[in-house]
UniProtKB/TrEMBL annotation:
InterPro entries: ATPase_NBD, ROK, WH-like_DNA-bd_sf, WH_DNA-bd_sf
Gene3D superfamilies documented for this protein: 3.30.420.40, Winged helix-like DNA-binding domain superfamily/Winged helix DNA-binding domain
Protein name: ROK family protein
The organism of origin for this protein: Cryptosporangium japonicum
Extent of the signal sequence: none
Record Pfam families: HTH_24, ROK
Length: 401
């Protein structure tokens, strides 16, 4: 659409200013502390342009001066750094047994953390618990919930953005209702995102764990449920409906007979036999007595118990067939095992799993390694994704102001 020349010039100038400020801010964040000459060299912008961007970013409260550094000609150059308190990210991992929360400032330092036993699956109870935890975290940091730039909630299932609900999350009853996720705005304001917990674990692994510098890998969560986070070309792959990686529904193994009851769709065949509950049920079917959890089965297998070892062998068989199928389709370089079973059974699973894959895949199988992040994978992924988005948000708000 045609506009007067003055309007076009103003729009172009404003756009260039925003682009320059983003480039300078990103460069300061990358370097940690930087001078104007360093920023000019790194961004390719002129020193006067960098000076204007620094002034604007400092006025907006996003950067601050932090001392000086002597230059080659004896003159000192002012140094700038990102103001940590310019923004905050609230990360939440909603698990079946625990709710894990953390609050980080804009440079990624965790300023408060609280882990709390899950109070119950009801939506109202969960929102009340999350609100209480957010109040505790922000009070510790000396801020209020209104100061949180962005909240990231990691949950089981699939976030349906069209109607604001969760699908395939049987452990969170009530959240499958339309607009149910809107109530999360009461926790930390309207700026929030909802992500699949296993996808967040894959992001955490790519940012802080074994997936760093690995462009093609998958994160296999083995715990209360089964799921997979898929990273292709260094980016999380979500699929058409965000359901990529829901491998619990793979038709592998003889499933739980209860799955055949009419209306039962909460669990898939693979999950029913290879999850923590499936491992326990298999061990009990083989004759193991006294075990009340998957951990008991794993401990018994390490101690040489026959039924427990047979159950672990069956687990390896199920997992190997699933991973072989994934390898045939995606060709990942690395498979990271996580979750309650995956993180604590590496000594029982990795070598047998790799050996079995050698007989199932045509090419060399992917590396199999146990996550180094343990139970923090989801929370770290929420922080990583939230921090990247929060930095864009504070820049957008500064540009608008």
């Amino acid at each position: 659409m045609w506009q007067p020349d003055g309007v076009q010039t103003a729009s172009t100038t404003a756009l260039l200013r925003v682009m320059n400020e983003r480039a300078v801010f990103a460069a300061v964040f990358r370097l940690g502390r930087a001078s104007r000459p360093e920023l000019a060299q790194l961004t390719g912008l002129s020193k006067p342009t960098v000076a204007v961007a620094l002034t604007n970013l400092e006025s907006a409260g996003l950067l601050r001066q932090t001392g000086s550094r002597a230059g080659s000609a004896g003159r000192s150059a002012l140094l700038y750094e990102v103001r940590p308190e310019a923004g905050y990210v609230l990360a939440v991992d909603i698990g079946r047994a625990y709710v894990r929360t953390a609050l980080a400032d804009l440079v990624g330092d965790v300023v408060a953390r609280v882990d709390d036993p899950a109070c119950g699956p009801g939506a109202d109870d969960l929102v009340a618990q999350l609100t209480r935890l957010a109040d505790e975290l922000t009070a510790t940091a000396g801020i209020t919930r209104a100061d949180v730039t962005l909240a990231v909630f990691g949950t089981p299932g699939i976030h349906d953005e069209a109607n604001g609900s969760l699908h395939l999350a049987p452990n969170l009853p009530g959240w499958e209702e339309r607009d149910s996720l809107d109530r999360l705005a009461a926790v930390a304001g309207p700026a929030y995102t909802v992500e699949n917990d296993v996808d967040l674990a894959a992001i955490g692994e790519a940012t802080y764990g074994l997936g760093r510098d690995v462009p093609h890998f998958v994160y296999l969560h083995i715990g209360t449920g089964l799921g997979m986070g898929i990273v292709i070309d260094g980016k999380l792959y979500r699929g058409f409906r965000g359901a990529a990686g829901e491998i619990g529904y793979l038709p592998i193994g003889e499933g739980d007979p209860l799955l055949h009851r009419p209306g039962v769709r909460g669990r898939g065949m693979f999950e029913s036999v290879a999850s923590a509950a499936g491992l326990l049920a298999t061990a009990q079917r083989f004759g193991l007595t006294g075990a009340r959890s998957a951990k008991d089965v794993l401990d018994a297998a390490r101690a040489g118990d026959g039924p427990a070892r047979r159950a672990v062998e069956q687990e390896v068989e199920h997992l190997s067939r699933a991973v072989a199928g994934v390898a045939a389709v995606l060709d990942p370089e690395l498979v990271v095992l996580g979750g309650g079973v995956g993180s604590h059974a590496g000594d029982l699973l990795t070598a047998p799993l790799l050996d079995r894959l050698g007989h199932l895949v045509a090419l060399e199988p992917p590396r199999i390694e146990v996550s180094t992040l343990g139970g923090d994978a989801v929370l770290l992924g929420a922080l990583a994704s939230g921090l990247a988005a929060a930095r864009d948000l504070v820049l957008d708000r500064a540009a608008t102001a």
